[in-house]
C-alpha cells in the first residue's frame, strides 16, 4: 500500500485518498472495527460502500493488494456502483483464495 | 533570356532576317548589354561557322581586357584600404566589383556560345559525347584530350571526369558513328577549347577577387553563407541588387546542377539546392533536416542580401543575428520530443457511449438481426406439438416452420428492410408478382398433413407483422398522407 501516492494522482478525478493513523485518531476504531495494521474502506457522500470481495468481509480490505491496477479497478467499480445508488458492489477480482498455500 | 536565344539561334543553320531583327529588339530592351555585345549578336546573323572569331568576341573587347587587368592588379595588391567610407558607391573598387559581376555573367554566356561551336564541330567525330558530358568546360577538356583519336583506350581521361562516366564514354566511343576530323577543323576546335578554358580561368580569377572583397561589399550575406558562396551567388545572379530582387525560392536554386545522366540512380541526388549546398550551415545539418535547412537558409540569406543592397547595415550585425537565428532553428528541430506527462484517469461512466447510426450501421446490424425463419421457429401454434430436429420433442423445435396452413411453404431469404425501401423507390419497375419471389418456387407442394397443397398466391406471408392485416404497423408501410410520386 505504499504506492498509494502514485495511485492518488491517477484517480484524482473521481476519488480522494485519506490516510488516517488509528493510533492518533482512535475515535472510529470500535465503529469500524479497525484492528488490522492496514485497512481500506470506501465512502461515497457520507455513506459506507460495501464490496463483495469473496473473503466474507464486505466492509473493508484489510490485506495488502499486490497490483496497483487491481486497486484502481476496485475504486472504479465502487464509484460506478455508488453513483447508481448501490450500497454493495461486486469486486472485479475475487480474493477468496488470497492466501495461496 | 537573350543568351538562350543566342544558343538556339547558333544551333539553327538557317537564320532568317526576321529572327535576327527580333533578337535585336530584345537586345535593346535588355539595358545592361553593351555595344560590343550587340556587335557580337549582329555577328550571329551572318554566322560563319568556320571562323571562331565571328562567334566569340568577348576576349577581344576592350572592356574585358580592362577589367581583367584591374582584377589582376587588385589581387596582387591584396586586401588593403579597409577605410571604405560611408558611401561605398564612390569607391572605385566597388565599381570594379559591380563590373566584375556583369563580366562573369558575360563570360558564362560566352562559354556557352563557344561550347555550342565546339559541339557542332566535334559532332562529326563523336556525336554521343555531348549527351554524356554536359558541363561545357568538362566537354572542352575532354575534346582537347581526345583530339582526333579514334581508339579511346589510348586516351587517358583520368581526373577530368568521374570514373563511371569515363567508362561510359569509352564504351560509347568504341561504337560511335563518327569519323576523324580534317586537320583544319580539328585545329579550329582545339583553338575553341583553349579559348573556353581561358575564359573559365578568367572567370575563376574574377570570382576569387570578388570573394576576397565580399566582406566589404555584402557583410551580412557573407556572415550567413560565407564569402565564397556569397561571391558565387552574386556572380551568377548578376550583381547584388539583382540577387536582392530575387525571391528566396530562386536564391535556393542558384547554381543547381540540373541534369542527371540517364541510367544513373537518382536516389542519392540532393535535389533543389544550389550553391547553398556548400555553406557550412548546410553541411553541418543532419541529412534528414537538410531540405528544411536549405529553405530557411535561402530565406534568411535573401533578407541579408536585401539589407546589403541598400547598405542598411555596414557592420554585418544583421547577418550574424540571422545566422544565429538559423542555428537556433536547426537545433530546435533536433530536440527530442517532450516527455509524456502522466495523465490522471478519466471519471468512469462520465461520457455516455457514443451510439452511431446511419446506413452502414443498419446494414451491419442486419447481418445479426433475427430472421423471419427464426421468428417462425420461435412461435408455436396453440395446442399443436411442434416438430423437432431429433423427433419426439428432442432436439431443436421447428415452431411454425413448415406447418400446414401457413401461406408459404418454403421460407426464402427475406429481403432486408433497406432493400424493400429501395424497391419501393423504383416502384414503376416492379412487375406485379403473384407473391412468389423466385422463379424456382412452384405453387405445388407436398405437406405431411394434407398431401398436396397449393399455395395461395394472394396470401401475404407476413403473418409476423400483420396479424390483424393492419397497415398502420406495417413493416414496409409509409406515410399515408404524403403522396408519393
From TrEMBL, chain A:
It comes from the Eukaryota. GO terms for cellular component: spliceosomal complex; U4/U6 x U5 tri-snRNP complex; U5 snRNP. It is found in: Nucleus. Keywords: mRNA processing, mRNA splicing, Nucleus. GO terms for biological process: mRNA splicing, via spliceosome. SUPFAM superfamilies: Thioredoxin-like. The keyword GTP-binding does not apply. InterPro entries: Dim1, Thioredoxin-like_sf. Pfam families: DIM1 (PF02966). The keyword Translocase does not apply. Belongs to the DIM1 family. This is Thioredoxin-like protein YLS8. It comes from Nepenthes gracilis.
UniProtKB/TrEMBL annotation, chain B:
Pfam families: Nop (PF01798), Prp31_C (PF09785). PANTHER family: PRE-MRNA SPLICING FACTOR PRP31, U4_U6 SMALL NUCLEAR RIBONUCLEOPROTEIN PRP31. GO terms for biological process: spliceosomal tri-snRNP complex assembly. GO terms for molecular function: RNA binding. Residues 330-363 are annotated as: Disordered. Residues 353-363 have a biased composition (Basic residues). It is found in: Nucleus. One of its GO terms (cellular component) is precatalytic spliceosome. This is Nop domain-containing protein. Keywords: mRNA processing, mRNA splicing, Nucleus, Ribonucleoprotein, RNA-binding, Spliceosome. Residues 217-335 form the Nop domain. It comes from Nepenthes gracilis (Slender pitcher plant).
Amino acid at each position: 500500500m505504499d504506492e498509494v501516492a502514485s495511485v492518488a494522482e491517477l484517480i484524482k478525478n473521481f476519488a480522494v485518498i485519506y490516510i488516517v493513523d488509528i493510533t492518533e485518531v482512535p475515535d472510529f476504531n470500535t465503529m469500524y472495527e479497525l484492528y488490522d495494521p492496514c485497512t481500506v474502506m470506501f465512502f461515497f457522500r457520507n455513506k459506507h460502500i460495501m464490496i463483495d470481495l469473496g473473503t466474507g468481509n464486505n466492509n473493508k480490505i484489510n490485506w495488502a493488494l499486490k497490483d496497483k491496477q487491481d486497486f484502481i479497478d476496485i475504486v472504479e467499480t465502487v464509484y460506478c456502483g455508488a453513483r447508481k445508488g448501490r450500497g454493495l458492489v461486486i469486486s472485479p477480482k475475487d480474493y477468496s483464495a488470497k492466501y495461496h498455500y | 533570356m537573350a543568351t538562350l536565344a543566342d544558343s538556339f539561334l547558333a544551333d539553327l543553320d538557317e537564320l532568317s532576317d526576321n529572327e535576327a531583327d527580333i533578337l535585336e529588339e530584345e537586345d535593346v530592351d535588355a539595358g545592361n548589354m553593351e555595344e560590343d555585345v550587340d556587335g557580337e549578336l549582329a555577328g550571329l546573323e551572318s554566322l560563319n561557322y568556320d571562323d571562331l572569331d565571328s562567334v566569340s568576341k568577348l576576349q577581344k573587347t576592350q572592356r574585358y581586357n580592362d577589367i581583367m587587368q584591374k582584377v589582376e592588379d587588385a589581387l596582387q595588391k591584396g586586401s588593403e584600404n579597409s577605410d571604405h567610407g560611408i558611401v561605398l558607391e564612390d569607391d572605385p573598387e566597388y565599381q570594379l566589383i559591380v563590373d566584375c559581376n556583369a563580366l562573369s555573367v558575360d563570360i558564362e554566356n560566352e562559354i556557352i556560345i563557344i561550347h555550342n561551336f565546339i559541339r557542332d564541330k566535334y559532332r562529326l567525330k563523336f556525336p554521343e559525347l555531348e549527351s554524356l558530358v554536359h558541363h561545357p568546360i568538362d566537354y572542352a577538356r575532354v575534346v582537347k584530350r581526345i583530339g582526333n583519336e579514334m581508339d579511346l583506350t589510348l586516351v587517358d581521361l583520368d581526373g577530368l571526369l568521374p570514373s563511371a562516366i569515363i567508362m561510359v564514354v569509352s564504351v560509347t566511343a568504341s561504337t560511335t558513328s563518327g569519323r576523324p576530323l580534317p586537320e583544319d577543323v580539328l585545329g579550329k576546335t582545339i583553338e575553341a577549347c583553349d579559348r573556353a578554358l581561358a575564359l573559365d580561368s578568367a572567370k575563376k580569377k574574377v570570382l576569387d577577387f570578388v570573394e576576397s572583397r565580399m566582406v566589404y561589399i555584402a557583410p551580412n550575406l557573407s556572415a550567413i553563407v560565407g564569402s565564397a558562396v556569397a561571391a558565387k551567388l552574386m556572380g551568377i545572379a548578376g550583381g547584388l541588387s539583382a540577387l536582392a530582387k530575387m525571391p528566396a525560392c530562386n536564391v535556393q536554386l542558384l547554381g543547381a546542377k540540373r541534369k542527371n545522366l540517364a541510367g544513373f540512380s537518382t536516389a542519392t541526388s540532393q535535389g533543389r539546392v544550389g550553391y547553398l549546398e556548400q555553406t557550412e550551415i548546410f553541411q553541418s545539418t543532419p541529412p534528414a533536416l537538410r531540405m528544411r535547412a536549405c529553405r530557411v537558409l535561402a530565406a534568411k540569406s535573401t533578407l541579408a542580401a536585401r539589407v546589403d543592397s541598400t547598405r542598411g547595415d555596414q557592420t554585418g550585425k544583421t547577418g550574424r543575428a540571422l545566422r544565429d537565428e538559423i542555428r537556433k532553428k536547426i537545433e530546435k528541430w533536433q530536440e527530442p520530443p517532450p516527455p509524456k506527462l502522466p495523465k490522471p484517469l478519466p471519471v468512469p461512466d462520465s461520457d455516455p457511449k457514443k451510439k452511431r447510426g446511419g446506413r452502414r450501421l443498419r446494414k451491419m446490424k442486419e447481418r445479426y438481426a433475427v430472421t423471419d425463419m427464426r421468428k417462425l421457429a420461435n412461435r408455436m401454434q396453440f395446442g399443436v406439438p411442434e416438430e423437432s430436429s431429433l423427433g419426439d420433442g428432442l432436439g431443436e423445435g421447428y415452431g411454425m416452420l413448415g406447418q400446414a396452413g401457413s401461406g408459404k411453404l418454403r421460407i426464402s431469404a427475406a429481403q432486408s428492410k433497406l432493400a424493400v425501401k429501395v424497391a419501393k423507390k423504383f416502384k414503376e419497375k416492379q412487375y406485379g408478382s403473384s407473391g412468389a419471389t423466385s422463379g424456382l418456387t412452384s405453387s405445388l407442394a407436398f405437406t405431411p398433413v394434407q398431401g398436396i397443397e397449393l399455395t395461395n398466391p394472394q396470401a401475404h406471408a407476413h403473418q409476423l407483422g400483420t396479424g390483424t392485416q393492419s397497415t398502420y404497423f406495417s413493416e414496409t408501410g409509409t406515410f399515408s398522407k404524403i403522396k408519393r410520386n
